[in-house]
Each structure stands twice: as structure tokens, then as C-alpha cells.
Specification:
The protein is an all-beta fold and 191 residues long. Helix content is 2%, strand content 46%.
Length: 191
């Protein structure tokens, strides 16, 4: 079953991890005619109990998924190839390319940098990112895409909770094809 893009959707905590200080994580995903993917994440909860780095200058980061991080996985419909985007509240980012399930690695290209905006209140953290799809792959701009979105949230004691639109059976695994539940039609196509 496909989820409808553009409308906010609630991410669910993985059943084997506790949500702790997090009350809710929402996401909205859309693609415009110019080939830009827009991601809007909102985390609500006791932010004082979470490890959330302060926003700094945008820069490439490494192993962002080990701490509080928002993620998107993007695949062209009908293929096993996909890209992974990691977006941290620090405004660090990372991009990975995979030929198939977990078969790939990091892309060290500064031109892939998404535009990241972060806003933080007492009990709400918002991260918006805009990604030029044709920088990931020239075919991403005009093809039907399958997208998975997720979040890793770290508490001060180091405990991690894992959030996604859909979790496959077993341990948390955001790379699993069963999590790619958003379908983005070709720009201009009737939904």
C-alpha cells in the first residue's frame, strides 16, 4: 500500500525500541516540477532529554545515523538502486549510493549538498531539506520514485529510538525495500 506524498505522515517507533522522550515524529515529502525533493520533519517531545546538536554551518558529516538524524531513501520505481540521505539537526548531511540492498557507499561530492533549515523550540524540532534530484541521478528528476523516510533519535543516556513510516519485521532496517512506501509520480502526472 502506497502512502500519499505531500501530506504530513506520522512516523512510528520500531516495536523493539522505546520512544522515550519523543512523543511524535511527522514528515512531509513532495517533489516539484523543477526536480527538487522537499522533506519536512517535525519531532515533538522533551527535547531537553534528547541529544540534539546545535545547528551550525552546513557541511558533510559521517555516520550521522549513530545520533539524532533524519533520513530519506530514494529509488526509481522498478530498480534495486537507491540513494540514502542523512540530515542532522547540526545541518550536517551525508549521501550514499547503493546498487542493491546495502551494496554501495558514501558519495563524497559537495555538489550534492541539500539546503537544510532547522528550527528549535522548547518541545519541537523542525528540519526542512531541499534536494536537487538530478544531482543524485539524472534519471531521478523525471522518473516515478519510491521513497522511505525515517529518523534516529538519541537520548542523553545514548539510547536510540528508530522511527519510520513502515518497519519491516525484525530489527530496525531502514534500507529494507518494505519501507519504501511513498510513491512520487513523474512531475506533472495525474495522481
Amino acid at each position: 500500500m502506497w502512502k500519499k506524498p505531500g501530506m504530513p505522515s506520522a512516523l512510528a517507533p520500531h516495536p523493539k525500541t522505546r520512544p522515550g522522550a519523543v512523543q511524535r515524529v511527522d514528515v512531509s515529502v513532495s517533489r516539484d516540477r523543477d526536480g527538487t525533493l522537499a522533506l519536512a520533519f517535525a519531532l515533538e517531545g522533551r527535547l531537553a532529554d534528547l541529544r540534539i546538536p546545535p545547528a551550525g554551518e552546513p557541511r558533510r558529516g559521517h555516520e550521522l545515523w549513530r545520533h539524532t538524524c533524519f533520513e530519506a531513501f530514494i529509488a526509481r520505481d522498478g530498480t534495486t538502486e537507491y540513494h540514502e540521505l542523512n540530515l542532522a539537526p547540526s545541518r550536517e548531511w551525508a549521501v550514499y549510493a547503493f546498487r542493491a540492498y546495502r551494496d554501495g557507499g558514501s558519495l563524497d561530492d559537495e555538489t550534492l549538498a541539500p539546503r537544510i533549515d532547522v528550527r528549535r523550540g522548547a518541545d519541537r524540532l523542525e528540519l526542512d531539506a531541499h534536494v536537487a534530484l538530478d544531482r543524485l541521478s539524472s534519471r531521478h528528476r523525471d522518473e516515478v520514485l519510491r521513497v522511505a523516510v525515517s529518523a534516529v533519535v538519541e537520548e542523553h543516556d545514548g539510547t536510540l529510538s528508530y522511527w519510520a513510516l513502515r518497519h519491516p519485521a525484525g530489527k530496525p532496517d531502514f534500507h529494507h525495500a518494505d519501507g519504501f512506501v511513498l510513491r512520487l509520480e513523474r512531475p506533472g502526472a495525474a495522481c
